[in-house]
Amino acid sequence: MLEPWYVTGFCDGEAVFTYSRASSSYGLYFAVKQREDNRQIIEEIYQFFNYVGYIYKQKESKSAPMSGFTKPAAYYRVTRSSELQVIIDHFDKYPLQSKKKFEAYKVWREMVVHKIENFRNPDYNLLHTLAGRLSSLNLQSRVFKRHKS
Known about the structure:
Elements: H1 4-14, E1 15-22, E2 25-35, H2 39-48, E3 54-58, E4 73-78, H3 81-93, H4 99-117, H5 124-139
Antiparallel strand pairs: 1-2, 2-4, 3-4
């Protein structure tokens, strides 16, 4: 079994706290991706979080105009609000240490808590504002580089 601080440290470098958006609806998620040959750590993190979320297999893909060659990968993702609470509980108890990741987590956490507490009537203006802040923080990360079209 992984130690809690190890999981926090690993996620500080490899995880993402982000969202997807369709119209005015926001889907929030926590995710970690590793090459398929490093799948064991993804499975151990999945086990550590009591099997919430899913592990997906990303197939190998050839170069595209805006991206490079992608090797097969294991992709762990948690999207359900009730399951995201497990993620929040961990990172509240064992906080991230890097400033950028911690700041992104705080904004993401606020979005998740708002959606849980206001699931029938969320404040979309608040979510939109928080999403803008989160996007800005994530763009500063090495994982989220802008590509020119």
